[in-house]
């Protein structure tokens, strides 16, 4: 890929190909990701080398991931991960203009043009692949400042909330899980632990899609979110390979979904449980069903996975109803993620201006040395 020459270093963008990478290339990537994890997520568990390599080698049916390394004098200084809908997958045309971007630059090598080089690589990718909007997340002040500086706009704020599992109010949860009048309304429970049969999941894709798209996402401009059976097939294959459970709790009105809550447990991080979607269909809101399905799910996790010590969940800052429930349970905000979006025209403009500024700075240095 592209090479950039600075005053004393060569900066090169190079794709990382998991299926072709050599042991030394893997070793360098592992060292870099551990460094970046310690810099941005101190104290958080880090995936083992073997698990990480296995994860990257999986080919997903719906989403493609590409990794681009920024090498500063042949040392990894930064990385960019591009996630986008696989061309030719079902409904791929709806996602064609969008790409999700992750990555970062090692703190000791910032201010050397690494981020700018990665952005140039992003612009080239977007131009060549017909993408018009890139979405990225940040949770640290320097990440917010950098994304602001390139012209990206914050579109969504999310809290990651956490609670020690044994400090949840289990007596209150028991009351929530058994709301008065449930039987009178004709609702029935359906609870799954481990895996949900595919024949059960298949008819749930449409109601789950409706529920998740009815959640507040502030100003985030993304294609309609879809629940898709192929995603579950791929995810369950992952769980089978590395070990893990999927918990799903439903309240059904006949065959219709009145409320749902699900969570996942990952054997690689056995002391954690990750809460996913909690949602209630509009006709059933205001009757305590969100509390009921969340409480029943937490009770089920407690029964099946006593090793869990911490529960984690993510909530949009604008989702006042769910934040209220989590606050009553004793969840605390661990960090705030902000999702930023930038269009290709704004990215091009930033790179052009950045190039002018870099040229002016170079001329100034040369003049002072003359």
Order of helices and strands: EEHHEEHEHEHEHEHHHEEEHEHEH
- Determine the CATH superfamily of the largest domain: Gcn5-related N-acetyltransferase (GNAT)
Number of strands: 13
CATH architecture of the largest domain: 3-Layer(aba) Sandwich
Rg computed from alpha carbons, rounded to a whole number of angstroms:
23 Å
Low-confidence stretches: 4-8
Care to describe what's here?
By secondary structure, the chain is of the alpha+beta class. It has two domains: 3-158 and 339-369, Gcn5-related N-acetyltransferase (GNAT) (Aminopeptidase), CATH 3.40.630; 160-337, 3-Layer(aba) Sandwich (Aminopeptidase). The protein has twelve helices and 13 strands. The chain has helices spanning 23-40, 49-57, 92-95, 114-129, 141-149, 170-176, 198-201, 205-212, 229-242, 289-304, 320-329, 344-369, and strands spanning 3-5, 10-16, 63-72, 75-85, 98-105, 133-138, 153-164, 187-194, 244-253, 256-266, 272-280, 310-316, 332-343. It has a 13-stranded mixed β-sheet with strand order 1-2-3-4-5-6-13-7-12-11-10-9-8, sandwiched between helices. Strand 5 (98-105), helix 4 (114-129) and strand 6 form a beta-alpha-beta unit. Helix 6 (170-176) crosses helix 10. The longest helix has 26 residues, at 344-369. It is globular. The model is unreliable at 4-8 (pLDDT under 50). Residues 209-353 form the N-acetyltransferase domain. Its EC number is 2.3.1.-. It comes from Variovorax rhizosphaerae. This is GNAT family N-acetyltransferase. InterPro entries: Acyl_CoA_acyltransferase, GNAT_dom.
């Amino acid at each position: 890929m592209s090479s950039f020459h600075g005053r004393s270093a060569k900066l090169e963008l190079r794709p990382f190909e998991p299926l072709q990478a050599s042991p030394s290339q893997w070793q360098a990537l592992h060292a870099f990701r551990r460094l970046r994890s310690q810099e941005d997520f101190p104290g958080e568990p880090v995936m083992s080398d073997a698990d990480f390599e296995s994860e990257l080698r999986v080919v997903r049916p719906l989403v493609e991931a590409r990794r681009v390394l920024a090498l500063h004098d042949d040392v990894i200084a930064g990385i960019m991960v591009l996630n986008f809908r696989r061309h030719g997958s079902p409904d791929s045309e709806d996602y064609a203009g969008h790409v999700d971007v992750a990555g970062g630059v090692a703190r000791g090598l910032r201010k050397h043009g690494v981020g700018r080089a990665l952005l140039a690589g992003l612009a080239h990718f977007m131009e060549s692949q017909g993408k018009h909007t890139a979405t990225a997340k940040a949770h640290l002040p320097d990440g917010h400042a950098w994304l602001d500086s390139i012209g990206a706009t914050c579109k969504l704020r999310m809290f990651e909330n956490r609670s020690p599992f044994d400090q949840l109010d289990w007596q209150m949860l028991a009351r929530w899980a058994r709301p008065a009048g449930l039987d009178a309304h004709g609702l029935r429970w359906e609870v799954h632990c481990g895996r949900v049969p595919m024949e059960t999941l298949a008819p749930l894709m449409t109601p789950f899609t409706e529920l998740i798209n009815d959640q507040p996402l502030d100003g985030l401009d993304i294609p309609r979110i879809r629940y898709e059976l192929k995603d579950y097939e791929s995810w369950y294959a992952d769980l089978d390979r590395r070990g893990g459970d999927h918990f799903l709790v439903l309240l059904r009105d006949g065959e219709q979904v009145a409320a749902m809550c699900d969570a996942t447990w990952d054997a690689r991080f056995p002391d954690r449980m990750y809460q996913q979607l909690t949602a209630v269909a509009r006709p059933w809101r205001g009757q305590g069903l969100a509390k009921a399905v969340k409480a029943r799910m937490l009770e089920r996790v407690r029964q099946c996975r006593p090793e869990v010590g911490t529960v984690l969940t993510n909530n949009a800052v604008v989702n006042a109803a769910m934040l209220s429930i989590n606050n009553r349970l004793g969840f605390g905000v661990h960090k705030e993620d902000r999702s930023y979006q930038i269009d290709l025209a704004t990215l091009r403009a930033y790179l052009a201006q950045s190039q002018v500024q870099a040229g002016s700075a170079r001329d100034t240095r040369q003049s002072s040395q003359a």
